[in-house]
Amino acid sequence: MAPWAGVELSALNPLRVLWLALTAAFLLTLVLQLVPAGLVPGCALFQDLIRYGKTKREGPSRSAACRAFDVPKRYFSHFYIISVLWNGFLLWHLTQSLFLGVPFPYWLHGLLRILGAAQFQGSELALSAFLVLVFLWLHSLRRLFECFYVSVFSNAVIHVVQYCFGLVYYVLIGLTVLSQVPMDGRNGVVIHCNHRIPFGDWFEYVSSPNYLAELMIYISMAVTFGFHNLTWWLVVTYVFFSQALSALLSHKFYKSKFVSYPKHRKAFLPFLF
Hints:
Blueprint: H1 14-34, H2 44-50, H3 54-57, H4 64-67, E1 70-72, H5 76-100, H6 106-115, H7 123-149, E2 157-159, H8 160-178, H9 209-225, H10 230-257
Antiparallel strand pairs: 1-2
Helix pairs in contact: 5-7, 5-8, 9-10
């Protein structure tokens, strides 16, 4: 049996199917452009849909019917206006959800489930989605600035279908990022407040991987400053001892509360402490 034969069909959620279809479509288009001219029948509409700007102007001659669907290439700025507004809106709700426990709006929660949002728990995946959405929003803001103050647009044009696709793309890409946030637990309902023994990933090595991750964040900042920056290394030293103290106290708590607590698990540093 092929390695992929056991993959469940449920893994192909609507978003994955859509991105897979777009990938296949653009791959096919690329292959067709690599085929020597004359081997594949030409199609004016097809060429008009895949070209824009200078490639449209320097491409095959275009009929009046094709030119009727032209819109100015400077409308690219509309893509980034939509992205800044829409993805900023999504980022606001994700921030509210992650840090304040505010649930997504009902319509947004339902839309994400329809699209195939993650149906499992994992706070690290939620944080990754948050960072990606922040970067996407900043990228869109930068591109919008470039459209207004840097780019010089000629009389180049794009097809109205390309224009609509660009608008939809930046809405869809934000929803795709947000769909990576696990839906379980994002509805604001607290199941219980009892402590349990955590398992998996870093929990197999230390009792408080969050404290270890905090230390690693500050160490990465120290590397950014440079190894010679004594002041920041003093900050790192403080973080090390403060997080080690919190980790040790949590470790003692777990050991006192659970008789079956894993003996090999350390408090703060894997295999050491």
